[in-house]
Amino acid sequence: MDSDIAYENFDLFIGYGPQEGIYRAKVQRSPAGNANIDFVLPFSQEEVANILWEGMGASRNYGSQQASGERPDVEALGRSLFAAVFDGAVGLKLAENQAIAEKSKTGLRIRIQIDPCLPALADLPWEYLATPRGDFLARSSLTPLVRYLEVGCGEALTPVRPPLHVLAVLSNPKDVTRLEVDKEWQRLREVTSPLEERGLLRLKQLENPTPARLRKALRGQVNVLHFVGHGFFDDSLELGGLVFEDENGGPKVVTAKEMAELLQDSRTLRLVFLNACEGAVSGRSDSFAGVAQGLVQRCVPAVLAMQFPISDPAAIALSREFYSALADGYPIDAALSEARKAVMEAGGPLEWGTPVLFSRSDDNRLIEMPTGDARPVIERQPWEPETILIEGGTFLMGSDHGEGIPEHETPQREVFLPDYRIGRYPVMNCEYEVFLREAKRSANPEMRWDGNSPFRGEERHPVTGVTWCDAMAYCYCRWLSEVTGRRYRLPSEAEWEKAASWGREMQTGEQGRRPEQSDNFPGQAVGTGSAAMSQATERRRYRRLTRRRQRLWRRGPDGQRAGVGALALAALPLSTRGWARDRGWCVAADRRPDGASGRFVQVEAG
Questions:
Q1: Does 5 score more than 80 pLDDT?
Q2: What are the counts of helices (DSSP H) followed by strands (DSSP E) for the chain?
Q3: Tens of pLDDT along 280-295?
């Protein structure tokens, strides 16, 4: 399905009918108009609830129980529920809207709103609604199903631009059933790492997940809160909640109300993903007693929670496909429909109906996908340097005064930059060779090529021996700009340093990996400018920069090291090599007071 597809809303309100035991389904808004019908449930609410909960292996009171082994016939259940609610005029109106959506090539979002005075009705598994021919509405991204809650508070869901900031809270307190949170974290990392590589998502773990630490973390940029841990709902107390850790590592129960108060002041939070049992369960006398419902009532725009226990394979498939579809530009509900298909393949045959989406948004757009060169990944020519998008914003540039800190590195200060792109790897010999051939120029002797071509086997090595003038607008950058239609230039010092800090933030726990030693150590002379500096002096500077800025290490195409011992015209900005305007060749990286470094080729977004 096209991720840019538009959706129309089919709003269905279910409330009291004219007398006890009769309910009224009313189409409040749809492209084809309104309709209503009175209906009677074809089954006992307690009967269907008990069958489902027993079949799913869940307990209504703190924890799980052994599943009966009997598989509930959810298709028959879904057909019966559909036949009751979508009978007569309401069913005809749904068919009309589906025909309109098919003709206009749009989707039809099914938003079900249950009267808050009917919490037992809200507890039914509406996700299993099935048409007479057995098509489950919620399992198609063309007809995603949402539990719509109209609470009249705060702003509805507003999209954010990539990357999506995800905070993982993995709670595993002592004295309760232990969870394999290390494996959970590793799985979540594996699920999201391809999206991080594309600059679409940033994942961070909350260490020692206490309520106080979460409150502090929410002062920063958090778009999605992903909770993994114990959840519960107690019918006798009409109380739902989550289990966090206290300062000593023991269990700390946070009720639905307390959790809502904890999150309600976050201005960046858009979605809460609750990978915990019974997070979507509501009270039999209070529709908002459950965790998910309580969060939406307290102005969290959307909550994805589980109404039954979910197996590990199903949970992994759910997270992987859900975040992947989000990064592709799908709305939350359509992304969940895509994830349901993956859960059906990886988990049990019924687990695809376990996730429930509660929302108060009209369109459920979580990510606003940029266009043109502002996209995280852009199309490029084979010889065009690969670039990554650096998100604009304020960052700390420079260093505080201290021993061994050069004066021109100080003071540390806040600097704002808009979005921009910067090269991911060094420009390779084969890429630079295209420029020389098309521009009818000759390779510099210092490049140490075989005439006007690199030696065999070195085509994908970083290009070296390129002068500042060759790299700047007079030659390479100017040529790239003309043939691609993008504006290439060398970045400022601020752009270079922000990109370096951006790379560090992408790593787990903010712990960068130090560059490994190699035969191609940056202290080696490269070009005439570098030869003027002793290896000992350059090595000390290299180690100081590496230690202070915690440079990460990345490998470029074919495993080539990024920017080590080479003039990198375009590189992941984590090398300590670069140009200075008053020298023609490679020298150790150094801050320039005017902010004009010449380290890497960069292409602007927009």
A1: yes
A2: 16, 22
A3: 666 665 666 688 888 9
Dist CA 338 CA 111 (whole Å): 17
In sequence order, what are the residues at sequence separation of 6 or more whose Cβ sits closer than 8 angstroms to the Cβ of residue 388?
199, 376, 421, 422, 423, 424, 572
Residue 380 to residue 310: CA distance in whole angstroms: 42
Q: Give which of 241, 359, 281, 334 is closest to 56, Cα–Cα.
A: 281
In this structure, what token pair is assigned to residue 578? Answer: 């670069």
Helix (H), strand (E), coil (C) string for 495-511: HHHHHHHHHHHCCHHHC
Within 10 Å of residue 329's Cβ, how many Cβ atoms?
20
Chain centroid to CA 489? 30
Residue 129, token pair as written in the block:
């609604």
**DSSP letter string over 296-364?**
HHTT-SEEEEESS---HHHHHHHHHHHHHHHHTT--HHHHHHHHHHHHHHHS-TTGGGSEEEEE--SS-
Cβ-proximal residues to 519 (8 Å cutoff; 6+ apart), any chain:
none
How does DSSP classify residue 428? B
Phi/psi at 199 (5° precision): 75, 20
DSSP state of 542: H
In this prediction, residue 251 has a pLDDT band, given cuts at 50, 70 and 90, of very high
CA distance 275 to 146: 18
Please tell me the distance from the alpha carbon of residue 213 to that of residue 254, in angstroms, as a whole number.
Answer: 14
C-alpha–C-alpha distance, residues 478 and 332, integer Å: 42
- What would the two tokens of residue 433 be? 């060779």
What residue has token string 């006007």? Answer: 452
Residue 388 is encoded by which pair of tokens? 């990554």
- The Cα 475–Cα 444 span in angstroms is 13
The set of residues, in sequence order, having a beta carbon less than 8 Å from that of 547 and lying 6+ positions away, is none
The string of pLDDT tens digits covering residues 475-488 is 888 898 889 888 88
Token pair belonging to 545: 């920069």
Going through 418-531 in order, the beta strands assigned E by DSSP cover 420-423, 488-489
Q: Are 476 and 585 in contact (CB under 8 A)?
A: no
State phi, psi for 455 to the nearest 5 degrees: -65, 150
Q: Which of 576, 561, 492, 493 is nearest to 530 (CA)?
A: 576
Per-residue burial over 108-135, b = 16 or more CB atoms within 10 Å of its CB, e = otherwise: bbbbbbbebeebebbbbbbbbbbbeeee
d(CA 12, CA 113): 6
Amino acid at residue number 299: C
